[in-house]
Amino acid sequence: MIRRFVSGLALMWLIGLIAFTLTLPKAADDQRTQGVIVLTGGQGRIERGLDILERQRADRLLISGVHPGVALSAITETYHVPVDLAACCIDIGYQANDTRANAIEAEDWINRHHYHLIRIITNNWHMRRAMLEVRRVVPANVTLIADAVEVSPPLSTIVIEYNKYIWRLVSIGIR
What we know:
There is one protein chain. By secondary structure, the chain is an alpha/beta fold. It has a single domain, classed as 3-Layer(aba) Sandwich (Rossmann fold). The chain has helices spanning 2-22, 45-54, 72-79, 83-89, 99-113, 127-137, 155-174, and strands at residues 33-39, 58-64, 90-93, 117-123, 143-149. Strand 1 (33-39), helix 2 and strand 2 form a beta-alpha-beta unit. The protein is elongated. The mean pLDDT is 95.
């Protein structure tokens, strides 16, 4: 009986992993938003956020989870961002060191600017958990648009992220 139960759980986990992998989120359309939030930590994320801002598809950009030793000037130099654009429209968040902290940093920024339409940028494999965390803390009148940077991570990364996502769903459900 226990073996069947464990086998059933393992099968459900495997089917879920396959579905998770086959349905990774995609890039969003070019819809204009009030703000764009980039969760740092993966390839292409900052570039995508800067592109949205430079093409005037958002008014302001928050780069969340930046290492405390990285100044805005380093970002402008690395990504060739005009200084005037950086000065008016880019905010750096230094407080977040994980996805839940990114969500709190995002909530503070959204509330400070009174935004109601936000684009969230992260990698495709990370998007579901990022949206789960941000949705949990932002006001209900804020619309979030998932804009995934499409990458092909190793299977180990997908398995780890899937497990984290399931764990968060379970822990939220238990509360």
